[in-house]
């Protein structure tokens, strides 16, 4: 039975992903060239991207120091496709939230690092879209918006914040109590970032009201903590 027939994938899928990235870079695709170039070791020769460089880029995209570290973590055994999607979705999500929560996103972050940060959020959302439900999709949109806000990509932040709230409003049966306040919080930030202060204040007020109504103490405290996490673009002082 083939891997496709059995629904199982393993290192072969990662090898294929690296080969595809290498081929795209060799063909001159600008996005692939930037991605592979950013992963080349310091001091290496400019130009000429090897398959090893592509593997390093794939590993970096999943948050690993090297292809070896990625192989070690995933292991050599076959794993169910759903398990791999769930693992990478959660790993990339947690990695991004750690950076946001720790405030380790400096204003002068290099553009290549900003791209990698945003790619990790998109990758997490993509993996959850393979196995999740509307709540997972909304949380992926929320993460993309928050990361985009942190790196100053306001158009992306606003688009995905709106998409997050749309999913929350359209699929209330799939959501947890904290999904709606998080959606309004992200949209308030994004609107503040583009200067739409009146609309931003409105969504911030809704986010605070919904947060106050959350029954679970731990969930409510997490939400309250987000109101103290920058950037807010001066909105909290109004």
Structure characterization notes:
This protein folds into 2 domains: about 5-75, no CATH class; about 80-235, Tetratricopeptide repeat domain (Serine Threonine Protein Phosphatase 5, Tetratricopeptide repeat). The protein has 12 helices and 2 strands, in the order αβααααβααααααα. Helices cover about 70% and strands about 0% of the residues. It starts with a helix and ends in a 12-residue tail after the last helix. Helix 3 packs across helix 4, helix 4 (about 50-60) crosses helix 5 and helix 6 (about 80-100) packs parallel to helix 8.
Task: List strands and helices in order, with pairings.
Layout: H1 3-6, E1 8-9, H2 11-26, H3 30-39, H4 51-61, H5 67-74, E2 79-80, H6 81-101, H7 111-131, H8 134-150, H9 154-170, H10 179-193, H11 197-212, H12 217-226
Antiparallel strand pairs: 1-2
Q: Structurally, how many domains make up the residues?
A: 2
For the largest beta-sheet, the strand count, sense and barrel status come to:
2 strands, antiparallel
Mean pLDDT: 85
Order of helices and strands: HEHHHHEHHHHHHH
Low-confidence stretches: 1-9
**Order of strands in the sheet with most strands:** 1-2
Class based on secondary structure composition and strand pairing: mainly alpha
């Amino acid at each position: 039975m083939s891997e496709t027939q059995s629904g199982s994938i393993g290192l072969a899928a990662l090898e294929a992903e690296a080969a595809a990235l290498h081929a795209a870079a060799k063909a001159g695709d600008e996005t692939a060239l930037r991605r592979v170039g950013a992963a080349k070791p310091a001091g290496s020769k400019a130009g000429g991207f090897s398959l090893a460089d592509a593997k390093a880029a794939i590993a970096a995209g999943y948050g690993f120091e090297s292809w070896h570290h990625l192989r070690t973590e995933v292991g050599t055994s076959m794993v169910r496709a759903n398990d791999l999607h769930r693992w990478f979705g959660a790993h990339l999500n947690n990695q991004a939230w750690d950076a946001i929560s720790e405030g380790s996103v400096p204003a002068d972050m290099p553009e290549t690092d900003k791209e990698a940060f945003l790619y990790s959020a998109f990758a997490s959302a993509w993996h959850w879209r393979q196995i999740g439900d509307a709540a997972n999709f909304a949380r992926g949109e929320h993460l993309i918006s928050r990361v985009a806000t942190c790196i100053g990509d306001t158009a992306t932040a606003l688009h995905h914040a709106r998409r997050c709230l749309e999913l929350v409003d359209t699929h209330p049966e799939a959501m947890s109590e904290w999904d709606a306040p998080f959606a309004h919080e992200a949209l308030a930030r994004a609107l503040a970032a583009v200067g739409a202060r009146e609309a931003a204040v409105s969504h911030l007020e809704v986010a605070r009201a919904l947060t106050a109504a959350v029954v679970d103490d731990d969930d409510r405290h997490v939400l309250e903590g987000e109101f103290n996490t920058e950037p807010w673009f001066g909105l909290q002082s109004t």
